[in-house]
Specification:
- It contains eight helices and eight strands, in the order E-H-E-H-E-E-H-E-H-E-H-E-H-E-H-H.
- The chain is an alpha/beta fold.
- It has a single domain, classed as Metal-dependent hydrolases (TIM Barrel, Alpha-Beta Barrel).
- Strands 1, 2, 3, 4, 5, 6, 7 and 8 form an eight-stranded mixed β-sheet that branches.
- It is globular.
- The C terminus is likely disordered.
Length: about 250
């Protein structure tokens, strides 16, 4: 599977990652990628960036080292009403956003509570991707998640770091496979993210590839293999386009 875009990456700015933005983007160029999204953790995560960091992301060029750079964020869902931790004005100026459940920001609840948190977040027109929904620490009603994703145009992320053996989200494989099988059945595309926290992990989706090969998941349903399709599918790019600059 040829991946040309990595939509989930972290740098030192997130507080628990170990490379600079430049190192990450250079690594993407060396690996033959075309696009990288900068998705640092939003302010509710301990020791991460401030609001001002995201408000000032516009100073980073749209292209570096031949790579198209999306300025984005990994939002924290902070309650069971789907509240996220970045204001609408700032969020609207970004290129992409992921909303995720993280244990430092929200204690896992019941399946009903966790599902409600995700559904409400997905209803937000500025939430483009639901991050690592396979996390077994947060039981979810996957049929409901999948229906709402289709209704709202929110992409479901297949997160490579969730499949790392003995990782913090160990046990995700069964849930991720369930999501992939639903996507195959309904012919719905998904987005793949490395969730890299060091430059060597940029563009690495090897664990996802193995799972996709195992179940015969079609490459054409992986948006990261075509940057133009990916950009056109991101929720905030649908309908009213930002006419001041091209997608690529």
């Amino acid at each position: 599977m040829k991946i040309l875009a990595d939509t989930h990456t972290h740098s030192m700015a997130s507080g628990h990652a170990y490379s600079t933005i430049q190192e990450n983007i250079k690594a993407a160029a060396e690996k033959g990628l075309e696009l990288v999204a900068l998705t640092e953790h939003a302010p509710a995560m301990k020791n991460t960036t401030s609001h001002a960091y995201f408000a000032n992301l516009h100073v980073i060029p749209d292209h570096l080292f031949g790579i198209h750079v999306l300025k984005g964020v990994e939002l924290n869902i902070i309650d069971f009403e789907g509240t996220i931790d970045l204001d609408e004005v700032t969020l609207a100026k970004l290129d992409i956003s992921i909303a995720s459940l993280h244990t430092p920001c929200i204690t896992p609840g019941s399946k009903k509570e966790n599902t409600r948190a995700c559904l409400c977040a997905m209803e937000n027109p500025l939430v483009d991707i639901l991050g690592h929904p396979g996390d077994p620490r947060y039981p979810l009603d996957y049929e409901e998640i999948f229906r709402t994703a289709q209704k709202t145009g929110t992409l479901l992320e297949i997160n490579n770091a969730s499949l790392v053996p003995e990782g913090v989200r160990a046990g995700s494989e069964e849930n991720i496979e369930r999501i992939l099988r639903m996507a195959m059945k309904e012919d719905v595309p998904v987005v793949v993210g490395s969730d890299a926290h060091f430059y060597t992990g940029i563009g690495d989706v090897s664990f996802v590839e193995r799972l996709m090969e195992k179940i015969g998941f079609p490459e054409e349903l992986v948006l990261n293999s075509n940057c133009q399709n990916l950009l056109g599918t991101i929720k905030r790019n649908k309908g009213e386009k930002r006419g001041e600059k091209p997608l690529l």
